[in-house]
Write a structure and sequence with these properties.
This protein has helices at 87-107, 119-126, 128-131, 146-151, 153-162, 164-176, 183-192, 195-214; strands at residues 5-10, 15-19, 25-30, 40-43, 47-52, 61-66, 75-81. It has 215 residues and is α+β, with helices and mostly antiparallel strands. The radius of gyration is 19 Å and the shape is globular.
């Protein structure tokens, strides 16, 4: 499978953000003039943090924090995804792939499991931070509201249990987050960019319950 790439503007200039075939670097190439070489390239191992705008935001932006040798603070590169139809999907794909690549770079390609348990059990233990978030009201009218989905810990744990790849991404992203970000802050940011997944899961669960009652 080809590495993810997406149409993204950098400093108000249109271009393409892409991960290299070996997954070791990220580059941004301007679309003009045609045939341009990458104007920005940095190794995945230098990435210290990733932040994405929430699903509710009209703009789809990805911040990549890069720590260069000798620099006191990380450089922040902001990419604004510009596709009129798949901007969110492209941003999600690149962010998830980068999270995985960063973790592999730090662990030598091995995702460490929690002591005495598997990666899956570690994810469920870490997901306790999700359950600790305040629960929103249970009104049926607001079941698919962004705010409720974002704060529904039970729904989030259910989605993690039913999606091994997402569960793995959750664990890897949590382990690569800066120490300055708390588990609760991380959890909030993680789900803010995946409201669409929570909504789809909530709809699926609701349909399943309806079918069970009908039968």
């Amino acid at each position: 499978m080809a590495p993810p790439r997406g149409s993204a503007a950098y400093k108000k200039q249109d271009g393409t953000l892409a991960i290299s075939k070996n997954g070791q670097s990220v580059s941004w190439t301007p679309v003009a003039p045609p045939g341009s070489k990458p104007a920005l390239t940095f190794p995945v191992s230098a990435i210290t943090n990733l932040q994405q705008t929430p699903a509710s935001s009209p703009k789809v932006m990805l911040k990549i924090f890069v720590q260069t040798p000798g620099a006191q603070a990380a450089e922040v590169h902001v990419f604004n995804f510009t596709s009129p139809t798949v901007a969110r999907a492209e941003a999600d794909a690149i962010k998830d792939a980068l999270s995985k690549a960063v973790q592999q770079a730090k662990t030598g390609g091995v995702v460490p499991a929690a002591p005495g348990g598997s990666v899956s059990s570690a994810a469920m233990a870490i997901a306790g931070a999700v359950s600790s978030l305040p629960q929103a009201g249970a009104s049926q009218d607001g079941i698919y509201d962004d705010a409720r989905l974002h704060s529904d810990g039970n729904l989030q744990q259910s989605l993690l249990k039913g999606d091994p790849q997402l569960e793995k991404t959750f664990v890897e992203s949590l382990r690569t987050k800066p120490e300055s970000i708390t588990d609760r802050q991380f959890t909030s940011q993680f789900w803010s960019s995946r409201i669409h997944l929570l909504r789809a899961h909530a709809i699926e669960k609701s349909q399943t319950r309806a079918k069970s009652k009908f039968n």
